[in-house]
Design goal:
Helix content is about 35%, strand content about 25%. By secondary structure, it is an alpha/beta fold. The strands form two sheets. The chain has a five-stranded parallel sheet with strand order 6-7-8-3-9, sandwiched between helices. Strands 2-1-4-5 form a four-stranded antiparallel sheet. The two termini are about 25 Å apart. About 30% of the residues are buried.
């Protein structure tokens, strides 16, 4: 379980949010909402341990994430605005590197299968710099098919995806939650996944 208490984050002299408290339990999807500049990305980066809040505590299974360090990062997969892929590497090479960094050990066949499921059959061994923005996004999102992390933190994961990829991503997220996984996401796109019985956190009043 992820537990957040009395969290405050600032950007320069401006307080983005304060006294923020919530918990994310297994089988939960938390949709973080708010206008541009309300602190959604800042919050997600704080939850990943990529920035320090001004005050407050973020705990994973009762322990502060700053104390858990790599143990927490192995249990968490973060997908940010940048795809996090190396443009000189192919899709398959990017997945190999990501699997090592995520401490996953998929079979080679699993890597190829993940890219095929993401609609990239025939593009697996091309340098990702020659792919479209949507295809690059699909390479990055293929990590979700391989990850063993119980907590997914996804910042605008639907951006630049076509309808088929949006449907596939929704299915992957729904399946992860149904398997007692946890998902925290932001999205400006109103997709069916974010209009059902899920939890919402609204930043900015």
């Amino acid at each position: 379980m992820l537990d957040v208490s009395d969290l405050e984050c600032r950007r320069g002299d401006r307080t983005l949010f304060s006294q923020l408290a919530f918990a994310v339990e297994p089988g939960t999807l938390l949709h973080v909402r708010g206008r541009n500049g309300s602190g959604k990305t800042t919050l997600l980066r704080a939850l990943c341990g990529l920035l320090m809040p001004e005050t407050g505590e973020i705990r994973w299974n009762g322990e502060p994430i700053r104390r858990l360090a790599e143990d927490y990062h192995r249990d968490m997969l973060y997908f940010g605005h940048l795809n996090g892929i190396k443009h000189d590497l192919s899709g398959i090479e990017n997945l190999r590197v990501a699997a090592i960094l995520d401490d996953d050990r998929p079979d080679e066949a699993d890597l190829w299968d993940a890219l095929e499921q993401m609609g990239l059959k025939g593009f697996e061994d091309l340098p990702t710099k020659v792919l479209s923005q949507g295809q690059k996004k699909r390479v990055a999102l293929a990590r979700l098919l391989l990850s063993q992390a119980p907590l997914w933190i996804l910042d605008e994961p639907f951006t630049a995806l076509d309808t088929d990829a949006v449907d596939l991503l929704q299915m992957l997220i729904a399946r992860h939650v149904a398997d007692d996984g946890m998902v925290i996401l932001t999205t400006h796109q109103e997709v069916p996944l974010t209009s059902g019985q899920i939890r919402r956190l609204h930043l900015g009043g």
